[in-house]
Amino acid sequence: MSDQDDPRPFPDPAQLPEVPPDTLGLDAEEMRRLGHKVVDMVVDRAMARGQEPAIRTGDAADLRDRLGGPLPEAPGDPDAALELMAEVALAHQQHGDHPRYFARVPGPAAFAAILGEWMGTGFNTICASWGGASGPATVELVALGWLSEMLGLPAGTEGVLLSGGSMGNLTGFAVARAEMGPGVAYLTDQTHASLPRNLRALGFAGDEIARLPADARWRMSAETLRAAISRDRAAGRRPMMVVATAGATNTGAVDPLPEIADICASEGLWLHVDGAYGAPAAITEEGRAALAGLDRADSLALDPHKWLFQPYDLGVCLVTRPGALERSFAIHPEYLRDVREGAGEVNFGDRSLELSRRSRALKLWMSLRTYGAARFRQAVRDGIACAETAEAMLRAAPETWEVVTPAQLGIVCFAGRGADAAAHEAAARALAESGYACVTTTSLGGRSVLRLCTINPLTTEDDLRGTLDRLAAALAAPPAG
Ligand SMILES: Cc1ncc(COP(=O)(O)O)c(C=O)c1O
């Protein structure tokens, strides 16, 4: 039989070169060498993270000069590219894993989670259909099951991994809308700004987004909610969903979930909980108490890239009504007809707006297997305790500081005695520019405050003290100029 008659479309495996070539021609040994170099660069940087600036922001023109240039037409030096990437691009960012990065929400990613992320990228995993990803899909189902169990959610809870809180909340809202039909969603003025944006993107009209004033503790008031629902019914509108927050970005405050869940049950409304920041605290005993009622949510968003030590990005949408995710998102076009749908087989592309999607579960699975749930609980407990320690330090210096909101789920807000917004902002800026630490300001009811978010288990008492001392010194210094 001649070669031309050979029906096999592929070359004889014995004839294949020992090392298959890279798609675009990088040598395998070179890939191995560069890969080891990348691991060394990442570990070396992580080991030195306490010495680098907590945040560094570059000048736009300078960064463009150093990272840009004409389109590279010919091959270049990958070592030089990696070094430039580390020294210029990756040096100019917030280091959310720095022990003194207290701004917004830190991102203290753990080593084993980073390894899981790298494996998915290295194996070029796509977790869209069962047929194309039965292994990774099983990892996602297992990771979601472990997560639901750690959070104390009811059996039968289903979920999908997404890019973050914004997409987690958007997915929950889309499911609520598909299950319940159109109507009014209730939020507060402390709800994260991405949530009303999600609702607008989904087509909720202005009068279907009811932003209620928060109470004196920056939580949703059950009384205000009840009044708004009856006002809307009287005006002919159709209440549909309550959006509670479990761990507000500003203060860590938790809306009164049991009361809100009772209202939802009696009024026939969907309960969505935005736990993007705070829900991971429910894996600890003290957090579970603060988050009582979380298990009564119909849908819940949370972000393991915030407080479960995962690298960006990783958000989750969990839904306690079986089948609701697929009822909202499943698609059956002719070109996906050969996708399998047997018992226990999940096409994750049918659970959100993402069809092609990488396997974000690998990092969560890998880190739970490596560290164990008990280690996660301890690390979250440390973050809760750290804010309480900061609060105690602030209260011990009443001539310098006023505690504006107490430590709640790893966040404390405070003000310098006699300091206004400009003074707070200048002190926070000076601290960030010094490289020692990064804190941000926010505003509560029009009042400027400084805010610490302390969820990095590597933060020490010395880090807290050093940060507060430097802020106090900056506030005491006469304004420049
Ligand atoms: C309470 C809350 N909800 C939603 C979000 C949005 O999450 P992401 O930035 O992951 O999209 C955040 C972000 O900080 C948050 O704190």
UniProtKB/TrEMBL annotation:
GO BP: any one term: amino acid metabolic process
InterPro entries in alphabetical order: Aromatic_deC (IPR010977), PyrdxlP-dep_de-COase (IPR002129), PyrdxlP-dep_Trfase (IPR015424), PyrdxlP-dep_Trfase_major (IPR015421), PyrdxlP-dep_Trfase_small (IPR015422)
Record carries keyword Transferase: yes
One annotated GO molecular function: transaminase activity
Coiled-coil positions: none
Keyword ATP-binding attributed: no
Annotated spans, Disordered: 1-23
Keyword annotations from UniProtKB, A to Z: Aminotransferase, Decarboxylase, Lyase, Pyridoxal phosphate, Transferase
Stated name of the protein: Aminotransferase class I/II-fold pyridoxal phosphate-dependent enzyme
Species, as recorded: Rhodosalinus sediminis
